[in-house]
Amino acid sequence: MLSTQDSSIIPNEWYNIVPDLPKQLPPPVDRDEKKSSIQLLNQILPKAILKQEFTFQKYTKIPEEVQEIYAQIGRPTPLFRAKGLEKALDYNGKILLKYEGATITGSHKINTAIPQAFYTREEGSTGVVTETGAGQWGTATTVAASLAGITSKIFMVKISFNQKPLRKQIIELYGGEIVPSPSRETKFGTEILSRNPDHPGTLGIAISEAVEYALEHDLKYMLGSVFNSVLTHQSVIGLETEKQLEILGEEPDVLIGCVGGGSNFGGFVFPLMRKFKETKIYASTASEVPKFSKGEYKYDFVDTAKILPSIKMYSLGSDYVPEKIYAGGLRYHGAAPSLSMLVNSGRINSSDMPEDKVIDALKLFARTQGIVAAPESGHAIATAIDYVKNNTDQKETILVNVSGHGLMDMSIFQR
Amino acid sequence: MKPLILYFTADFPSYEILKRFLEEVDPEIVKYVEIGIPEINPLYDGPTIKATHSMALKNFQREHLRQFAEILIKKGIRVFALSYYDRINKEGTNFIHYLKDSKFSGIIIPDLLTDYSEESERIIPEIEENFSFIPFFNPATPDTVIQEVSSKTSSWIYYGLQPSTGIDIPFDLNEVSRRILDLVANREINFGFGIRTIEQIKEILGLGSSGVAIGSLMVQYLKDNDMEGFRNFQNSVRGVYLNAE
Ligand SMILES: Cc1ncc(COP(=O)(O)O)c(C=O)c1O
To answer: In Å, how far are A192, B10, B34, B44, B122 from B37, measured between CA atoms?
Structure first.
């Protein structure tokens, strides 16, 4: 077991896979001739983020203050061997876990929230705005903003807002402001409410409200996933893992992570792909949101409201309405362009996991490892268990990224 | 003198007006002219150039290309076509032969490496048999792709400062130019896609062995049929170029 206190494991540069991809990454494009959604990014994102979004640099220095905050929010997160799970599965190989649930907000989301809040403050803005579905991203945003000394405003999809009152309390405790979306604080929200006062909200509407609010109040908008810059920030996961593997003297044969927009997966897998060129890689998605197996690799909108640019990715369609699974973070119609390209080229395999299998995996995991993993992460665990069961005679080293804990998503077990 | 390249969309704002502008192009400073073939969806062009495509589309006739080229070649300016892959795919080698017969010196295909990388293996040598394939790279092009495609071609290289034109993404000019100059030494590299001001042209010329391609910056003169404005514009660019010598 590794000490999580050794801050020398925290990298001082982030890794960006774009210049290392086998092919050129198709850039974000505008669909609308009259207004430029990419120009819009210029107004709502800090310049440093926009630059990272389009950079050809493989490595970007992590600002010292960000490195320090990484140390304070629980980085490096632990890498350890899942002996309990190995035993329960009667597996002769090894299962290793990288555990992002050990950060103070309980998931990897904080890894990108911190630099985005930091650059916002450095560039003289007073606050950030974003949307949140289940609440993980909103919580990470608020913590990062408070640590940077700026304000945060979160538009939370109304139906989740009502279902998860704890999220409101936590976000307010951390010093953020949270409103259910659709709200009357934006033109877009007001218009939707005037048509249907009981509208339950969607992530697409919440994004639209957050962007409009940022523009109207001269605040910055925070990107939760999908964008290159976010995957770059999340590379701390894989970079730490690389060093930790070295200390442990282990080399993975298989890498597994879950995919919503692709940020924890890309952040974990991409840095490791540099050294471990032959590993088998599995991107675990929800069978209910089968973006890789049933989606199409094409240009599509990032958000339902079509405010943000189109990007080339696997997509089920930007107006696809996913089933109401517990893993809210996996209910996204697309996936990051770099990840999509590697799935399309066959380098990365996809694995669809249905919710009942995920629940079984979460239960087994809790009982053998003592960790209540997030429903999203449960997909990665379920894929790992499946892999072990199909390859019992192999003695491989399987490395799984567990993106978050699930202590606030206990309702998944109530059925 | 360092290369100056001007970009025009064919038949924008009309056949007649573009012809008059091309006649006005100053061969003392302009080395190449790029003629964009109008497209329904010029995916990687920014809003300014995109708008020229939709306007030009209804005026466009293939035969005009030959006439545009003639005007420029008479003055000693080399002409390059810029076309999305879709058209080349549809019209096939026939189109390449037409351009070659019309005295075009080469072609730029902005979406080839991004969206048709498999086809590029076949089509680059095919084009090179006729005239120059001008590689179009940008900050999102992987190092390996830059090296491989450069080695298959011998012409100048078009390097986009931004992944799409007409959009101001912040970048460090020095860093961006150093990267490509380091990756492919001893080649003429011209920068474009996103040059917004005369000031930026000055800056780029100060960086080393490269020239500049200008497109969006001239659209307003064409749109307004403002020949005087275009002349003044060329003169101020000439000033910058002469100073850079
Ligand atoms: C714990 C957890 N894991 C995974 C995800 C999926 O997002 P991404 O694919 O960007 O990592 C989320 C998103 O909300 C999450 O909260």
So the answer is: 42, 6, 10, 13, 22
Instruction: Check pocket membership of A334 for ligand 1, CB cut-off 6 A.
Output: no
| Structural domain harbouring B19 | 4-244
With a 6 Å cutoff on the Cβ, whether A263 touches ligand 1 is yes
Hey, are the CB atoms on B54 and A33 less than 8 Å from each other?
yes
* A266 touches ligand 1 (CB under 6 Å): no
The total number of structural domains that make up chain B? 1
CA of A233 to the centre of ligand 1 (A): 14
Q: Tens digit of pLDDT for each residue in A5-62?
A: 688 999 999 999 999 999 988 888 877 666 677 778 889 999 999 999 988 889 999 9
User: B69: which 2 tokens?
Assistant: 């080229």
User: Can you give the CATH number for the domain in which B177 is found?
Assistant: 3.20.20.70
Which of A392, A225, A261 is CA-nearest to residue A335? A261
Contact B145 A23 (CB under 8 A): yes
ipTM: 0.77
Separation of alpha carbons A252 and A271, rounded Å:
13
How remote is the CA of residue A327 from the centroid of ligand 1, in Å? 9
The string of DSSP codes covering A206-234 is HHHHHHHHHHHHT-EEPP-SSSHHHHHHH
Q: Give the span between the Cα atoms of A312 and A308, in whole angstroms.
A: 13
Q: pTM for this structure?
A: 0.90
Residue B193, sorted as left (phi over 0), alpha (psi -120 to 50) or beta, turns out to be: left
